[in-house]
Amino acid sequence: MSECSCSEAVCSSTVREVEALAGVFKALGHPVRLMMVEMLMDGERCVCELQSGSGRDMSTISSHLNVLKQHGVVVCEQRGKNVYYALACPCLENVFSCLKGSIARR
User: Fold this and answer.
1) Which domains can be identified in the chain, with CATH numbers?
2) Span of the secretion signal (predicted)?
3) Which of 3, 37, 70, 94 is the most buried (most CB within 10 A)?
4) How confident is the model at residue 6 (pLDDT cuts 50, 70, 90)?
5) Quick one: pLDDT at residue 41?
6) Are 87 and 35 in contact (CB under 8 A)?
7) CB distance 64 to 32 below 8 Å
8) What is the pTM of this model?
9) CA distances from 5 to 2, 9, 41, 104, 106 (A)
10) In whole angstroms, how far apart are CA 73 and each of 3, 15, 29?
11) Which is it for the CA torsion 66, 70, 75, 77, positive or negative?
12) List of residues 6+ apart from 64 with CB closer than 8 A
């Protein structure tokens, strides 16, 4: 095995940035939340649509949406009695596509 001739690795992110990014990945690390994010890739949805599409009860959906909102993955807007959610990070669609392709190649 050869010796590494590289100089020290340099990280351009601050600890705060890396911690925030880790929080996003943690928020995405639950199957129900991933399912909801995938539903939101087609555009904004009312909470009731996310609930019926996931087959989970409303309190579970609200809890998961709160986690996604706290980490900046989704944004919401209240219109009348309904609350609509949308992705705050549309780039997640590319991430999902890339990861699904990687999984399919295994």
Assistant:
1) 31-104 (1.10.10.10)
2) none
3) 37
4) low
5) 95
6) no
7) yes
8) 0.82
9) 9, 11, 44, 35, 32
10) 41, 20, 12
11) positive
12) 30, 32, 33, 36, 56
